[in-house]
Amino acid sequence: MFEVKNISRRFGRRTVLDGVSFDVAPGEVVGVLGANGAGKTTLLRVLSAYLEPASGEVLYDGVDVFADRVAFRRLLGYLPERCPLYDEMRVDAYLTFRGLLRGLTRHRTARRIRDVAAACGIQGVLRQPIAALSGGFRRRVGLAEALLALPKVLLLDDPFAGLDPAHGYALRQVVAAASVRAAVIVSGHDVAGLAEVCTRFLVLRGGRTVYARRVTESDPAALVRTLTRVVSGLDPADGPAEPGGGQ
Amino acid sequence: MRADGVIFRREARAAFAAVSSYVQWAAFLAASGWSLVEALRRGEGGFVQVPALWAGAVAAWLPFLGTLATMRGFSAERASGTIETLLTAPVREAQVVWGKFRAAFLVGLTGLVLAAAVPAALLPRFAPSLAEGVSPWALGAATAALGVQLALWTATGLFFSLLWEQPAAAAASSLFCCLLVPRAVTAAAAAWFPSAPLETLGVSAREWAMAAADGLVSLAPWVCYGAAAWCLLFVTALLLEARQIRTG
Questions:
Q1: Rounded to whole angstroms, how far apart are CA atoms B41 and B35?
Q2: What whole-number distance in Å separates Cα of residue A164 and Cα of residue A190?
Q3: Mean pLDDT calculated for residue range B173-192
Q4: Chain B residues within an 8 Å CB radius of A51
């Protein structure tokens, strides 16, 4: 169980996260929505133990992830917002580098690269330099890297941005498949796309949780309408609907 | 394989595949070679041995080599955002610093070894009379002293590459620190504490390398340079953990 308890984070005098709490179990996909500057990226950076919170706790199986960040990161798959990659490397060399860095053996890394390349549809570009890839393929390589070591916690920051509908759909299926064994938290702006895979939604505004609910609607269109209104600030019923983030 | 070894291999491969590394080595060889020729001209008829002149010529340009080898070390990672993926991998900050340092040091060391080939290989062929004074031991001692100096310049460059997102700013800061700060400290110490042990504090990198080539081995500079390099790497690892670096 991945638990986030009342975390806050400031940059200078600006509060970017303010008392955010929720938890995610393996098999769940939590969608984090919000307008630009709502705190989505900072939240994922804190959850990945890249940034420390000013207050609050991030726990995995009851253990503070900041107590042993290296141990936690062995369980983590993370795709940052800008999908940064080493442009001068070939895709296969990059994935091998990341696999070895994650402590996989060379043999296991090669096997996992075959698996994630097939899942993410990048077999055709494995021997290409990363600099030659389109934005969509860069995202797929980033997602492949995040899935490489079979993570228990998968954090994806706007993973479907810039993808055409077909590739977006394919990658959402990859994320859904990964959620079988991992707690998945995925942020983004594409409400309709996220609604296909997410089992729960969290909406941030000004660093605070204004909406946290499980997906119960049988009508996906109604869910998208509701979420769009909340993200846009048009929903009059603001505030976390379910204490503890929709448990 | 250990994480720092993985980072070292990636960094070293990237450096040896980059045209800029070859340009750096060529520029370093040209500059140190020119300095050696000038030193030989000035020292004609004197008592200074060729290895000492070579050590002095190379030492003057070594901070530039260390700076160029490290200027993109962390600054490029910060600018491109790859530092975020690097620091969310299961590695310790110290392993990242150590891996990058070793790769940059290898790049600098390659330049240094190439520069050592000038007196070792070219002088016997093109200036046999000068080559008679070139002892392999003297050359080895000078190269070892220069290697320790290079470690400090590399650690300095890596430190500044973490502070700046722009490689040029990192390089300028590093060079300023390498070239001016030691002289300023020595001058200030000499002015304020005339009884200070300036034989340790005031020995310039160039003088030390020349002394090593002449067989004058003193432990203090080795310890000073080695400890300073180690301390800078330690501070760089601590800084890498600091939150300010991670907010870009």
A1: 10
A2: 12
A3: 78
A4: 243, 246-247
Residue A204: strand pairing partners? A34, A209
Taking residues B69-91, what's their average pLDDT? 92
Q: How far is B76 from chain A (nearest CA, A)?
A: 10
Q: What is the pLDDT of residues A214-242, one digit of tens each?
A: 877 677 788 888 888 888 877 655 555 55
Q: Would you state the structure tokens that stand for residue B18, as one six-digit string?
A: 């980059």
Spell out the residues 6+ positions from residue A33 whose beta carbon is closer than 8 angstroms to its own: A40, A187, A188, A189, A191, A194, A201, A202, A203, A204, A227, A230, A231
| H/E element, A247 | none
Residue type, position A1, single letter: M
- Cα A5 → chain centroid: 18
Q: Tell me if chain B has a CB within 8 Å of the CB of A49.
A: yes
Amino acid at site B65: L
> Which of the following CATH numbers is that of domain A2-75+152-246: 3.40.50.2000, 3.30.750.44, 3.40.50.300, 2.60.40.1120?
3.40.50.300
A106, B42, B82 from B78: Cα distances, Å = 28, 46, 7
Q: How far apart are CA A187 and CA A198, in angstroms?
A: 10
Minimum distance, in Å, between the CA of residue A138 and any CA atom of chain B? 13
Count of alpha carbons within 13 Å of A53, Cβ hemisphere only?
A: 26
pLDDT at residue A96 greater than cutoff 70:
yes
Query: What's the gap in Å between the CA of B229 and the closest CA on chain A?
Result: 26
Dmax (CA) for chain A in angstroms is 55
The domains of chain A are located at 2-75+152-246, 84-150
Distance CA B211, CA B215 (A): 6
Residue type, B68: L
Picking from A137, A178, A186, A196, the residue whose alpha carbon sits closest to that of residue A157 is: A186
The alpha carbon of residue A13 and the mean position of all alpha carbons in its chain are separated, in whole angstroms, by: 27
The residue behind tokens 């090593």 is B212
HSE toward the beta carbon, residue B87, CA cutoff 13 A: 25
Rounded Cα distance between B145 and B211, Å, is 9
Give B122-173 pLDDT, tens digit per residue.
777 777 777 776 788 888 888 998 999 999 999 999 999 999 989 999 999 9
B160, B147, B156: which is closest to B107 by C-alpha? B147
Q: Chain A partners of B85 at a C-beta cutoff of 8 Å? A: 78, 80, 84-85, 98, 145
Residue A126's identity, in one-letter code, is L
What band does B93 get if pLDDT is binned at 50, 70 and 90? very high
